[in-house]
Design a protein that fits this description.
- This protein has 420 residues and is of the alpha/beta class.
- It has 16 helices and eleven strands.
- The strands form two sheets. The chain has an eight-stranded parallel barrel with strand order 1-2-3-4-5-6-7-8, surrounded by six helices. A three-stranded antiparallel β-sheet has the order 9-10-11.
- It is globular.
């Protein structure tokens, strides 16, 4: 028999007193949601960081999912650590024993309609029951149907609207609140739109969150396509299915965007640890740190940096904030004042740079290339080759097959005719 947690009234905070409630939250420790990579020492690491910084910032929640499952998540399985089913639920129980809330991700951009089928809902019901039994506090969801299903099937589980819901308006906030969401992670494209952030805060009592260390370009044209590919390749594939070509193409195009010019570093959505107070004052309740594919030791360094609220000194690799290979370093501590323009004036970045040189001028001062050579150019050149190869996948396979055949022929030597 699945344990059922008593349903709690999750009504949205509204009314003139709501600002006071939010002010109390902003005055306390900043709250973070940190990734789970199923490492046994990670929870102990988060505990140590909470002991060190807990008066001003705390990891209050960890989040994760199976690497691959029928319903998938927002990351392709190939970049995530794989653990067995029993280990997932054992880890959730361990997190709860240590005082961390757990959010299970059911936030694939596309489920192929499976959440509306009899077989799909039967498996979902079983999964949600196991999550409730293990002590998970919430599920983070993209599908509106799935949100309503969770609330009907397991009312003790809270529901969060994923960043992949692309929430960037008061209307969308109202819609997801009507489906039972109590938290919304806002679209990364609103990260620097402070007038909009203030308006969203004023329009809703929902818990509002932002991802702090995304290196995605603001207004990225690849975003929806990339999330859709991740969704499909976070779900089991038919025998012989190959994610390489499609994912390598979008990944290559992403690398080209990020490395074409140093100004791209400041046109991406990451937030300096020093600037988190500005967002808390704007009304952001919750900060999410990405990194489900990171090594535990690197992840702990990133989490500590954000809890401490201070960037490393000097010109540090951009990878210190979000992982992955980049060709640039940034003097993050020297960026005090960079956000002032965005806080004071209407947000118009979606209209293009035009005569605005704000990011370009700052990039000249605080962004440098990696010390070990022209890494940015090498990344772009390699990415262009990768993208071109993905476009004509059959030609690439034929070339690889021909190369293998040539190597085998060389290894075996010339074939001699038998004489008898």
């Amino acid at each position: 028999m699945s344990r059922r947690v008593a349903a709690v009234d999750e009504r949205v905070i509204v009314g003139p007193w709501a600002d006071g409630v939010r002010a109390l939250g902003a005055a306390g420790a900043r709250r973070f949601s940190a990734p789970c990579v199923w490492d046994s020492g990670l929870l102990e690491g988060y505990e140590r960081l909470n002991e060190r910084y807990g008066d001003r910032a705390r990891v209050v929640e960890v989040y994760g999912s199976h690497a691959s499952s029928r319903f998938g998540s927002g990351r392709a399985a190939m970049v995530l650590p794989r653990v067995g089913d029993a280990a997932v639920f054992r880890w959730i129980r361990a997190a709860r024993r240590r005082g961390f809330a757990f959010s299970y991700l059911l936030n694939a951009a596309c489920l192929g309609g499976d959440e509306g089928t009899y077989a799909g809902q039967r498996e979902l019901r079983a999964l949600l029951g196991r999550l409730a039994d293990a002590g998970a506090e919430r599920v983070t969801v993209t599908s509106p149907l799935l949100m309503e299903f969770v609330r009907a099937c397991e009312p003790g589980l809270k529901v969060g609207a994923s960043v992949i819901c692309y929430v960037d308006s008061a209307r969308k906030l109202e819609f997801f609140a009507s489906l039972g969401a109590d938290r919304v992670t806002l679209d990364i494209d609103v990260t620097r739109n402070f007038p909009l952030l203030r308006a969203l805060r004023a329009s809703s009592g929902l818990e509002l969150g932002l991802i702090v260390n995304s290196l995605c370009q603001l207004g990225c044209p690849l975003k929806a396509h990339h999330y859709n590919l991740n969704a499909h390749f976070s779900q089991p594939q038919e025998a012989g299915a190959d994610a390489g070509s499609a994912l390598s193409h979008v990944g290559a195009r992403c690398m080209i965007q990020n490395h074409e010019d140093r100004v791209r570093v400041l046109m991406s959505a990451w937030i300096r640890p020093e600037d988190l107070d500005l967002y808390a004052q704007t009304g952001i309740d919750h900060f999410k740190i990405q990194g489900r594919g990171a090594r535990p030791e690197n992840l702990l360094k990133t989490v500590e940096m954000y809890l401490r609220g201070e960037s490393p000194p000097g010109a540090v690799p951009l990878a210190a904030f979000a992982g992955g290979r980049t060709g640039f370093r940034v003097k993050a501590r020297a960026m005090t004042g960079f956000l002032d323009r965005f806080m004071r004036t209407p947000y118009r970045c979606q209209e293009g740079c035009g005569s605005c040189r704000h990011c370009h001028d700052w990039a000249e001062r605080v962004v440098t290339e990696e010390e070990d050579g022209d890494v940015a150019r090498q990344v772009v050149d390699g990415a262009r080759t990768m993208a071109a190869a993905a476009v004509d996948y059959q030609a690439r396979i034929d070339a690889l097959a021909a190369g293998v055949a040539t190597k085998l022929q060389t290894k075996r030597g010339p074939v001699r005719a038998r004489t008898g």
